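Reading is simple: the token line describes the chain's fold. The lines below illustrate.

. . .
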Amino acid sequence: MEYIIIILMSYLMGSIPFGFILTKLFLKKDIREIGSGNIGATNALRTGNKLIGYATLIFDISKAVIPVIYIKFYYPDYIFIASISTFLGHVFPVWLKFKGGKGVATYLGILFTINPIYGFIFVTVWITIFLVSRYSSLSSIIASLSIPIYLQIFEDFNSIFFIIMFVLILYTHKENVKRLQNKEETKTKIY
């Protein structure tokens, strides 16, 4: 029963569509009809309102930190199941017919909560790739891959969870990968 409650509560917390809510509330627009149609921070930036974009980023990170940090302290054996449930909540939110975001900000919140070093590695790799390419999608994919690689090289730690998360991030970016291959991907302006 405990297990089911943790999965359900983590999923529901992750499924709060902040990009959708903030865009609707302050811009009176449906974010799903803007840019890529995605509800995440990158597409929220495409509304033309940077404040909405950055607020979405912060809220999407926070909605992972809150349930995962609680589980980390009170039910540490369930931290990975809570993490993946939160992530899946963002990607497949019940409130939006299971069509959500790509999960990058939510994954970042998970990483910082599990181990801040992982979060800093992710951010460092993301920024480095972004400064070179200007592609948010490519930065996210490579940054996600950097975590299991780091664990394999520098830590004696089971990286299966992080490999699964990389595969999920790659899956949520499958359309971006096609556009990158065809040189049709849109570059992102973050400032």
Residues 2-181 form one domain. The CA atoms of residues 132 and 139 lie 9 Å apart. The chain has ten helices and no strands.
